[in-house]
Amino acid sequence: MDTAVTATANTASTANTTTAAKPALELEHVSYSYTKGGKRVLIDKNYVFRTGRVISITGPSGAGKTTLLSLLSGLTTPTKGRVLHNGEDLAKADRYRFRSHDIGVIFQSFNLLPALTVAENIILSMDASGKTFDQPKKEIAAELIEKVRLQPEYLNERILHLSGGEQQRVAIARALSYDPQIILADEPTGNLDLATQDDIMAIFKDLAHNEGKCVIIVTHSPEVAAQSDEVFQLAPLRER
Ligand SMILES: Nc1ncnc2c1ncn2[C@@H]1O[C@H](COP(=O)(O)OP(=O)(O)OP(=O)(O)O)[C@@H](O)[C@H]1O
């Protein structure tokens, strides 16, 4: 039996009252098996991911973290159960719209276009969302760069000239560019030193606690988990 799924509240009380937590994404009896080999990766998972919170998804290698991220981002649908977004079944929703408007995904490898500038990368993502903006896009990009604590002159710098930590900040700015309610990050601090990792976590906490975002992070890092408001821990496959 799968008994090791736990959730702990660490600092949820730090969320301010203007961003009262409400369910953003919910797992409702979610199971998932890969067709090839029929391996059951997730079994009867239930969890509520709320706005105003930073939630870490942890678990050993192979526990199903990436699979879960793929379900939460609407790229895959559960074999059993439902993923709900604002109370509605994601499997029945317009998932293209969900992915281009409601969630911002930060990939482990950043997926930025190296030959383009920081501003160009951010603006490209705004264009792809199809949203309309009430401010010039370059101005929004400049505000986002400030939010992720990069100097304004970085806007016109090409990605290939940036360090790993700087690229990670740009990847966060890009994920925020169309103002999604939910941020999903896959190992966002994986290759960063501890000080940069703390900086990145401070940005995520600010986004959750002061802007009411739901920030979901897949991580192997105990430091990141400890700094999150909640930890959703997946058990090793062999213990299920
Ligand atoms: N496309 C696939 N087809 C079949 N099995 C897969 C597929 N992708 C992943 N798996 C299996 O599902 C299980 C969970 O994989 P997943 O990548 O979700 O784990 P994880 O917790 O993210 O691991 P890691 O920390 O190593 O990235 C693993 O046993 C993996 O071999």
Fraction of residues in β-strands: 15-25%
Q: What is the CATH first-level class name?
A: Alpha Beta
According to CATH, the homologous superfamily is: P-loop containing nucleotide triphosphate hydrolases
Strand order of the largest sheet: 1-10-4-9-8-7
Mean pLDDT: 88
CATH fold title: Rossmann fold
Radius of gyration: 18 Å
Instruction: Specify the overall morphology.
Output: globular
Distinct small molecules bound, one entry per kind: adenosine-5'-triphosphate
Helix content: 25-40%
Provide a descriptive summary of the structure in words.
This protein is an alpha/beta fold and 240 residues long. It has one domain (23-233): P-loop containing nucleotide triphosphate hydrolases (Rossmann fold). Helices cover 32% and strands 24% of the residues. The chain has 7 helices and 10 strands. It has helices at 65-72, 95-102, 118-129, 137-147, 164-176, 194-211, 222-227, and strands at 6-9, 23-33, 40-50, 54-58, 80-85, 88-89, 103-106, 182-186, 214-218, 230-233. It has a 6-stranded mixed beta sheet with strand order 1-10-4-9-8-7, sandwiched between helices. Strands 3-2-5-6 form a 4-stranded antiparallel beta sheet, covered by helices on one side. Helix 3 crosses helix 4 (137-147) and helix 3 (118-129) runs parallel beside helix 5 (164-176). Residues 1-18 have low confidence and may be disordered. The structure holds adenosine-5'-triphosphate (ATP). Residues 34, 36-37, 39, 41, 59, 61-67, 237 line the site of adenosine-5'-triphosphate. Keywords: ATP-binding, Nucleotide-binding.
